Structures
1.
Amino acid sequence: MRADRIGDRVPAPARGRVHSVFERACNIETRTGELVTLLAPELGNAPHGIRLAVPVAPFGSWLIPGQSAMLDNAALRVPDAGIAVDLSGAAVWRGAVAAVPMGLCSMDPGGAAIAAALRELRATLVDRAPEQGFTPLLAARASARSAVDRAFASRLSHTLPMLAWATERHDVKAVAEAAARLVGLGPGLTPSGDDFIAGYLAALWSRAGFERDIDAMLQALADALAPLFLRTNAISRQMLSDAAQGRFAERLVDVTVAISGAGNVVEATARALASGHSSGADTLCGLLFGFAPDHVVPSLRDCPSRQPLPCAAQFESSPGRTAAIA
Amino acid sequence: MSTLFRQGHPIINVGLQSFSDYNGSAGGKSVQVDWTPPAGGNRAAGWSLAQLLNHPAVERANEKAYAAFLAAQPVLAGIGVARAQLPGMDGRMVLHAGPPIAWQDMCGPMQGAVIGAILYEGWAADAEAARRLAEGGTIAFEPAHLHATVGPMAGVISPSMPVWVIENAAGSNRAYSNLNEGLGKVLRFGANSPEVIKRLRWMAEVLAPALAAALAKFGPLELKPLIAQALQMGDEVHNRNAAASSLFLKKIVPAALHSGFNAAAIADAVTFIAGNDHFFLNLSMAACKSMLDAAHGVPGSSLVTAMSRNGVRFGIRLSGTGEQWFEAPSPVVGGLYFPSYGPEHAAPDMGDSSITETAGLGGFAMATAPAIVQFVGGTPQDAIANTREMRHITLGRNNAFTLPAINFSGTPAGIDARRVLDTNITPIINTGIAHKEAGVGQIGAGITRAPLECFTQAVIALASRVGVAVPAATRPT
Amino acid sequence: MSATLVKIVPREYRDSVSLMQLSAMLGKLPGVEQASAVMATENNLALLAEAGLRVDAKGAHASDLLIVVQGEKSALPAAIEEAMKSLTRQTDDIGGEARAALRPRSIQMALKLAADANMALISTPGDYAAAEAMKALRLGLNVMLFSNNVSVEEELALKQFAREQDLIVMGPDCGTAIINGTPLAFANVVKRGPVGVVGASGTGLQQVTVLVDRLGSGISQAIGTGGRDLGQEIGGISMLKGLKDLATDPATQVIVLISKPPAPQVAERVLAEAAKAGKPVVAVFLGADPASIARKGVHAVKTLEDAARAAVAIVKGEKPRDSYADVPDLPAGLPKFADSQRYIRGLYSGGTFCYEATLLLGELLAEVHSNTPTRNAHELTDVWQSHHHTLVDLGDDVFTRGRPHPMIDYRLRTERIVKEAEDPHTAVILLDVLLGYGSHMDPASEFVPAIHRARAAAAAQGRSVAFVGQICGTAADPQDLARQSRALTEAGLLLTESNAQAVRLAATIVDAGVQPRGTH
């Protein structure tokens, strides 16, 4: 068995145990509490991921939680399962997002392209995403089928404006407070709130390349968020700590690359949506929110406290344009 | 809001595959049903079936019946004589395998076995006289199933034969079976020569008393744990009983030795059992009969409680349709024939032994006994596939019997006649093949399927009992 | 008063799809109102409290699975048991191999792979279709029944059962539906939007949804009912259900109803419900006088096109304007007809298009013959032979016996086009072109050569024939609308936006050709 890609955050050497097994993925918990994920080739890589080069039988047929595992630079071994994954030929993969300049005026060709990309992302989400988690919010579909759904929607309706506001002011403490209300929240193995936060952080890391304030905020945010991640399960926790360090899953990275202009947004989005039941969609909601909160929470658009975009002023002389922006 | 408008839910596509493809290219999700006309194309049965699907009365009845089936605890209580033990067995009565059949309709091996039984009972002096007696109408022929009894192949049991007595410790029913004679020239394949009759007498006079003494010493023997253990050792307890027979011997020999019974008799008995890898088959069958009878008689239930063949007709019974049999011609088995024999020599499928499949063993537990699929040139993967396929027609899995080859999951058990009809997946049966002429014996072994027609009739009958309407337009013309 | 029961399964990691399927499965159990299977994080526990569920989850950890069921107290333990069973069932097998091993053979089996399915699309031979539909309904699924040859008795049994279960049966013989933005069976790819449609006719539904899309709006849902739904026997069960569903659907702002004139009591019932929908309703009952349909809350129109126009106008807050009487401008470059060339020959693949054309043409011209006759038109005695003005539905059973529908197989139409061009009485050949899933993947490749052959045949006898038609399709359809339009226009087919416009243009052309002769 051979791996073709290995995430740059995979620790080596390390010892641990099989933690959880799914059909096409398996987590190994190291003694230091990190989760390394062994992935089937059709899945995107992850910062802590080792991706197999060729398809194998469903993981559940050969891996069982509790089996001990050993990892070094040459191989990942699970002796009880009789496997050794050869890592010697695996390319190191670094799950860093593409830089996206959000400060550009929407009349600038680059700015217009990014605005269009975000609209495409949103449209694809509305069109294809499941009716669970954050996406119904986006489509303004009141899909509250149960009291739990309603409570979920209500919590988001309070928390997301708070998060948008805190982000805009680069207020680390307030961002952490809002995030605390989202960690571990909602359906899914990685609860929807966790996926959302990961996506949100991906957007901030994308913006940080061009926005010094965001960059500064991210450095402080990693420390502020770390204790919150203990409030969710180990799988989410690994994803979120990687995210706080600026490391993300391949499918998500691909979407940021597409938004930056180097790929097809609709295709990248569709691929990202395929992960989990609603995980992909929730992550992308977070991403969209991190770039443009009003795309996710339409009510923010009418928020009077929102500062006008810098370029709006330039076109104030043109009444049509101003109307369109206001 | 209408459930239809919920976003992102897959559709189930029944019919044109292209609709699945369109749906896929348009961004939707769908699951394609690999559809064939249910009930083999019988419209009336198809409509009855549709109305019985997820029918509250049937679901409730099945729950009750299935719970009784799972809870049953067959225990080998002892050995007795058929006349004294079997309910309703008196006078000149001969029991046979499968659904009811008259003497003149019986296949060769069954007639041969009946003649043997008459000779054994001393009702006639020779085979010719026995035949005349059988033709004469003074002997009552009845299905063993009607007397809580099962027997392999011809399944012929007469009043003075010894029988195993199985009690359901979790219920109140008893089940019975005869004792296995071994291979070669034996009554169950229609042989009735003096050596056959002599062996039967020895079994009644020596083997049965020795086993009775051993059992009395041992106490009640729980059969489910023993079967479970045998399954771990490569038996499916229908066509392969090597492990179960050994396990049985291991339990019974010390008790026999300490029973104080005549040592020479015990030595003979043990030698006889040790020479017969199928000795346990009759116990496995009676255990299954015990579990299934516990589930029989729940009005509305579509659970199959018996599948059996008399060498001419294949019959099934449902828990919810009482004593009624639903029959179709018995199939000739495709399989591995011993040298110099072929399908042209074979009698149609015969015996009550498919009670094991009815209870989720035999063909249903094939995943654990890959040796069996060799009969039809199959592989261990085929064996697993067979077991998996049966999951789609059963009400659940019996976790008392787990299969190591598929990660210790329970055997698929409790055939739901509705599911058989809906999927056109018929129960798989591992079986021995008898020569069509009396007394030749076993000429092969193989794998066969229960005829769909039995399930079609059964579902129609159940629908009328449950009281679902058949609209005029779908009535057969 | 409903109760709540909670089960914590320690350190249980399930992928999200399994969790969702588990919740969906529990939610469908008898006596269960709602169910969720989520990770037992602090926030999820708080959420349950916010939702008013009293959950005692002491000692629960973020890595545990929390199963909550709410409903009738007596039903809850069984539901939890079912949940646990399903969890063990999932572990006791080797990964997904079992799925690969056997494709589902029945709806019940398919539901094991897709527990959250909400609909079955059934297109088996008609003899078996009703039973499959009944199974789907009994398993809690809505049904789209594409199959035909389902008896009225069966249809009624299905629809009555569906009504008891608050489900819908679309069909039988329902060729088109668009549900949640996904075209089903023979349907076009249209934008999503605020217009909801319920229709008893497949091509009628296609025409309206396509025009709504082209007019810049979109479709929330398009529901088919099958052609017999509004008859006396069925009583409009599916249309009433569709109407009710669209009335409560937040994404739908305007509702369009499409049908031939229903049985009078059924019409009353449907229109009474429509008036109560709380949303504007546009009704097109082809062949009925709009005045007899219109009432407060119900805007009645005469053509499919006007139904689409009215719906879009209402969405935009404009006043609907009927267009069916508009006289089109004569296009330039029309051929000069010979004296004998007086008639229109319409060759249709969509039954409803032919019927609508017959209705409209019957009002404009005398001596209209059709195999979908109306009050003002005669029954075509020999469907293989045109007579005066003739409109033929080539999708009629007479033509489709033993061959595919003319939406897929163009041979009958291409042959007939040439035949009509050879007839000295033919002035205009009228056509419909259907795009979308299920239809021919390249209609132009069939029609263009046929039109050329027809021209040549007419020219050989010193005549020239006009071709008029419409393409019922959208830019997003798989056939590439732009390319089809270009190829057909280049071949000389005068394309209009709708069936009604095509009919009017054909009539105008014939009129213009005839009148000058009259003044000679």
2.
Amino acid sequence: MDLKLGHYNKDGIEVVDVEGEIDVYTAPRLRELLIDLVNKNNYQLVVNMEKVEFLDSTGLGVLVGGLKRVRAHDGSLDLVCTQERILKIFRITGLTKVFGIHTTVDEAIAAKKSEK
Amino acid sequence: MATVEVTFTPLPAHVRTARLVATAVARRSGVDEALLDEVRLAVGEACSRAVEAHRRHCPAEPVRIEMTDQDERFVVVVSDHAPSATATPAGTNGHGPGDSGAPGAASVVQGADDAGIPAGFGLAVISGLADDVRVSSTSSGVSVRMSWPSAAPTA
């Protein structure tokens, strides 16, 4: 399986679990999920990328698109990622300055709650 | 090592195959294990770019990748047949990792439309991954040439 997606709500925040490779072929599915979540009024999102094995600029575009959508509703989209090979593309593109990136889902949720 | 060539129908599903082949050939060429992730990502970006260009302009034409060992460098050339006006290289020729010349992150977010990151960003990512990147545009298409150091051939 190239990409596996799941989501659940924890403490009022929608957590999206992503597993596999996010590229030009699989990224549209993640995009559709993020759009669907926003359309259902979920504006506080955490995308867990700890099981992502590959991420390219198409995937970055989907995440940026998701960020823009939630921000239009004063929401936020944070990431959970500790894998250096995935963080590398965020560093190359400067997007580490745009996304909140956390080491665990619980840390991301706690950070969001402390912002409120 | 002999050149390895791969051609594939410009479908997104085949970009992963191209990444896997390029990584395998790079490993066999002696590219350092620590660089293989960069090879995989850069080749994927170049192929994704070519696939999208072909889907817009010439969906019946295949995308081509050539992989060569050349003077202790592993060289990959991804070629497409889309009109050169589609190429918007950003950051080429000798940019090292971390210095991709990519547009500022804030402007990326601001400029992103519903499709996500603006065109040309993939080439900017490539230039941050390979220490030698050259983009050649002609009226018949675009070639993206990337290389990484490989092991010296054994006697």
